[in-house]
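Deliverable D4.2, example record:
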Amino acid sequence: MRKLFFLLAIWATVPAFAQTDFDSWLAAFRQDAAAQGISADTLDAALTGMRPVERVIQLDSGQPEFLSTFADYLGKRVTPDQVARGQAKLAEHAELLTAVEQKYGVPKNVLVAFWGLETNYGATMGSLNIPASLATLAWEGRRSAFFRKQLLDALRIIDAGHVAAIDMNGSWAGAMGHMQFMPSTFRAYAVDGDGDARIDLWQSLPDAMHSAANYLKRADWRAGEPVAIEVRLPAGFDWRQARMAHRLPVADWAARGVAPMDGGALPAVAGRAAVVLPQGWQGPAFMVFDNFDVVMDWNRSVSYALSVAQLAQQVAGGSALVALPAEIGSLTTEQMKFLQTALNELGFDAGKPDGLPGPRTQTALRLYQVKHQLPADGYPAPSVLADVERRHAESAAAGTLIKPAPTFAGPDGQP
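Output generated by the structure prediction step:
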């Protein structure tokens, strides 16, 4: 009966032709997995009766209507309740977390912050079957090579006896356990923290915490150094200096008048630091250190990394964010695409209009802001969009827009 419920959980309604295509793909994949040493028992347990999961395809192809601001992101994840629960977890698991900190050098409040952000302290680890989700993503085509590798690693984890195929559940993208490790991350960094000769990132908190700390240590975590601190910038600060790639010794930032928001001294660290403005010049400012790069290695989102720092600080009894953004609101994805198109046509190379404010778009926006004597923070605020819209309309009326070169593509988008 449990096997039946397992199959029903991973099945989804898909067109018959798609199921036929998936069956062919799965048969070929099974042969390849067997050739790579995956046992027949594991392949039977994980793949028999498998069907593509339509919900996974929908989630993979979806794009949010609005871009999330840092304030919105932080406000949803670092709440008074989340802080209080983190403090309770810190006390409840003090012995384990202290032992992990002593072994790996990663502070226990930082580990609790990761735990809170990843799975709400273990409450939301995901309920989708990992092999079924990964097979769907590998078959579907978008990033198929990546997810095929993840599926093979998931099968190797099952083959090693760490978890049964029926119990390997997690997010739609394949992340699993208390700390949401991908299968490749599991195989590279997960460790047996409780000494039972298995690595169980779902049911064993010692395994999960030791594994997370092992990952961070091997990513060059610097013991005794912070991730990020909120800072106050001096009057007349050159906003062009506030970017991840611009690193200076902490003493140089202090000489420029950058100071901690709490009035204390800037920390003594071995490496260089950067100033970042996650919501532009009218929002909070942070100084980030080498450990910020380690958190970014875990998750490439600046908002995520700053949220880890904020939650860790507050769980340890520190203060909440002081500065709040003066300009609220965010662009829709379509507005972001227009902004990128307009920048391109005004002569500032923002790259392909994809609705994502990546480094190329930020650089183009900074150049635009410098030219038009605006604060050059590279942040796509609504007020900046309004300025670009106005100048774009003026250039269109004057016939001075730069049109992209033709691609000679056919109606289907192919050359």
